[in-house]
Amino acid sequence: MSTLALAEKQSDILSALRGLGGKATVGDVVAATGLPAEDSTAALKALLESHRGQLAVSDSGELLYQFDEKLIERGTEPFLARLKRGVWNVFSKAFKAWIVIMLVVYFVVFVVLVLAALFANERGGGDRKGGGIFGGRGRRRGGGLPMGNFFFWYWIWTPHWRLNRPYYGHQWERSLAKDDKVPFYKKVFAFVFGPDRPHPTQQQLDRSTLRLIRARSGVLTTAELVEHTGLPVPEADSQMARLVGAYDGEPMVSPDGELSYSFPSLMRSAHGRVTAREPNPTWMRLEYPQPLTGNSAGANAVVAGMNGFTLVAALTSPWFIFPRLHIGGMGAFIGLVIVPVIFSLMFFAVPGLRMLGVARENKRRARRNVRRVTLGLVYTRALEGTGTTVEEAFHFVTTRLKDNQTVRRGQVEKALHDLAAEWNADVDPDPQGHLVFRFPEIRRQFEAGVVMRG
Q1: Helices within 132-201 (DSSP H only)
Q2: Does the model's pTM come out above 0.90?
Q3: What was the pLDDT predicted at 421?
Q4: Does residue 197 have a pLDDT over 50?
């Protein structure tokens, strides 16, 4: 089917799905559009890749395509989220340009002015002949100042570093070659806005999942995808539907009515039998805390020291620099007091405000780590055919995360209850009155995967 023909059929099917509330079987679509069943199936699979949706099995064993009622495309952001991100991008780019000019230039200017004021003070303040670094011996003395020092500016800029090359933080920098060090201005940006973060494409994100599919003979269930990603079950169902559309998958219903997904094209190779090593499950891939700057403590101290010096020098210049160097006027007050003070305060304020967001993100990461490790215990017990209690789960999670983070019992209990709701778990009290959580659906899906691979 050509791309144009497929697009036309998708348009017809989207119109039909709107009238069906986003939920339909292939038969519903055929009846609503008049398209052949084969074309309808191909178009529905393509829509699973581009629009939010998932697959399910009806009570009668029919395959259901369930899309969001508004037929929202995948990756669509709410307007306020896009606006917030756009405003932040504009502000960060403008402020970065201002930083390059302000921090370094004002720092150098105030170093020169402070030294000149000190020298003028030693000379009695009014001696023009020995008037500091602006005349006679003072100029020779000033030759070693940063403004004219090639190595200082090379350290700031490092010309061999590509302008848009990312900086992922100090730990990442340590992996670079000795002659390929990060320029200072990138560390200044990281101090204010945090280190750059990688933005992998969807295809890059899918690689480990595709490796898992190959390792499991081309058949995967939602339970196995959750094992790999740690996603909530509804999100995993949606991702599985997208994978079906993107990688020519085929949904299959086992004799017990469990849904699994086959990807036969991924098992074809020009090099004989396909073999792949399984990626680690999600509970063996924990998230690290997000750093505030990503810089080393020394780099942060240098950046903060430079800005702090500029702030103090600007605040005190009307009483220290101006009278000793006979500087006056509104222009000097604006240029040497108002502007650098506002800049320096903003320079410290942005990371201060970001600190709140980083703290919230690290709490979310900690909760996800608790969920992942709890999931590891749940899967182990489910495949054994046994259950777990909150007390057992709390001990299990605490033992495994003791070197990474502090774990509260309430976090584990919430994670266990969330998983129970997602998997429709059986929750019953034991003789001691403790709730026992059993997850038979996980075991059923793994067994269905084994059957369909056979």
Answers
A1: 136-141, 150-157, 170-173, 184-193
A2: no
A3: 96
A4: yes
